[in-house]
Amino acid sequence: MTGNVRRPGPPWSVDLLADLHAGALTAQEEDELRARIADDAEAQEILAALDATLSDLGALSNLPVPRMPEDIAARLDDVIAAEQRSRVAQVGAPGIPQQTAVAPALPEAGYPAQRQLPAFAAPAAPRTAAHPPSNVVDLAARRRKRLGWGAGLLTAAAAVVGVAVVVAPQPGAGDNVVGQPSAAPTSASPGVPEVEGGNFGPVFGEVLAAKDYGQLESPEKLKQCLAGGGVTSTPVGFAPVRLDGRDAVMSILPGGKSGSWRVVVLDPKTCGPTNPEGVLADEVINR
């Protein structure tokens, strides 16, 4: 096989097979192409190689994150400290009240002019000094902290939506009558894809490309929950979803043969290494 031009027939191009493997074709195109390459050994080898590549990339998420070299961390601290000293120097000390010129009042008829006292402008409020430089931490700790912030913001947003009420005046009521509050309807978590009736196709590509532990929070918890369902292989992609209106975490693993994938959906509240009931769905699909 030579070249990457998307040829519609054998020898099949790598680009066309990669689009098929990634789910970028329409359902009709995918069905037609799979039927045509079913007995093509070279095309099946390319699909198998793509499966192996995704599996290898997924395994990288379990490797330890290397710490930043000490010399680079020290240089970053020096740069941050110098920047903060520069900002503090620009702020300066609070200013001394300045006199503001006031036009003298005209004397009224029959009265001598009165001497005007100078008015003082209020002192400017001092600016807050910049925060002291923080220690450099490893990238894994920053990632966990960022995920924690994201989960906290989503939780706060959900709490605000849960307690929001709408107050509307009743038709024909007087000005002193206040309408009864009505609770806002419950909505799905923002940005979380919906899965209904076991139809994982619409969210497959998004989850396959993601590495989001969601409520599981860590690779250890994901591994334990998969083990509870008898799954020992490493997922290629995983992300939060809502399965039939229920919060869950969907993971995608190699299905054991070319073009097949295993979809395992976990209940983050109940799953664990000894609880197979925490697995909400376990299916093999072809893509």
UniProtKB/TrEMBL annotation:
The chain crosses the membrane at residues 147-168. Keywords: Membrane, Transmembrane, Transmembrane helix. This is Anti-sigma factor. It comes from Actinosynnema pretiosum.
